[in-house]
């Protein structure tokens, strides 16, 4: 079969799959997870039931697949920030700040029943481990540059960041998210010795806040 024909078929399959996932998300958002049936999804997506079942066996599998795609996109976004040029502390701030905003916006678009469905099982555990590994990498770079406290390992601090910033999902607005990121970053910095000035003085904190807001806008 010609390559172009294969690519056309694959593009069509991706389009159908995307339409199924977005249709399901919209129906669940409107009616709730328990009320949505495969028949409704097929009708709203403009495909036959037989075609729908070729892609997914049930509603839960559709939502899980959609969540996994979103997670993959978010991990790619965070990896891009990790790999960008600049000072390690700036990259750390960008990664943690962006992750906090992801948590905040995700919580606004997923009901508790959907969250309970997708935040479990092996795929979720793998994604969370990839996130912890990414955090550990950027924290390790900051530690090597002397911008990180030395009494706790980057691995433990990665878990601290994961759980601290997940609270962004419960915050009312982005201003509160920025404050949470500032507090989290403060817990990562080396402690000042008695009588010494804060290693992150007012000017540094102001610059860090401006940097975070700039990344948030993008």
Automatic annotation (TrEMBL):
It comes from the Bacteria. Signal peptide: none annotated. Residues 190-218 are annotated as: Disordered. InterPro entries: Homeodomain-like_sf, HTH-type_TetR-like_transc_reg, HTH_TetR, Tet_transcr_reg_TetR-rel_C_sf, TetR_SbtR-like_C. Residues 37-56 bind DNA. Residues 14-74 form the HTH tetR-type domain. Residues 203-218 have a biased composition (Basic and acidic residues). The keyword Transcription applies. Keywords: DNA-binding, Transcription, Transcription regulation. This is TetR/AcrR family transcriptional regulator. The lineage of its organism: Bacteria, Bacillati, Actinomycetota, Actinomycetes, Kitasatosporales.
């Amino acid at each position: 079969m010609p390559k172009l024909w294969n690519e056309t078929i694959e593009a069509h399959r991706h389009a159908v799959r995307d339409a199924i996932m977005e249709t399901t998300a919209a129906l669940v958002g409107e009616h709730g997870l328990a009320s949505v049936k495969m028949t409704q999804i097929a009708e709203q997506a403009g495909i036959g039931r037989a075609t729908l079942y070729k892609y997914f066996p049930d509603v839960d599998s559709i939502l899980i697949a959609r969540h996994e795609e979103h997670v993959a996109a978010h991990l790619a976004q965070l990896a891009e920030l990790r790999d960008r040029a600049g000072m390690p502390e700036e990259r750390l701030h960008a990664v943690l700040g962006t992750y906090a905003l992801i948590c905040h916006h995700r919580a606004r678009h997923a009901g508790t029943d959907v969250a309970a469905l997708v935040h479990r099982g092996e795929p979720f555990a793998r994604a969370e481990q990839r996130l912890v590994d990414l955090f550990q990498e950027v924290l390790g770079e900051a530690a090597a540059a002397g911008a990180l406290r030395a009494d706790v390992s980057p691995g433990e601090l990665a878990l601290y960041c994961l759980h601290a910033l997940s609270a962004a999902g419960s915050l009312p607005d982005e201003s509160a998210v920025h404050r949470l990121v500032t507090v989290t970053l403060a817990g990562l910095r080396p402690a000042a010795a008695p009588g010494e000035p804060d290693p992150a003085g007012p000017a540094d904190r102001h610059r860090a806040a401006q940097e975070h807001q700039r990344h948030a806008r993008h």
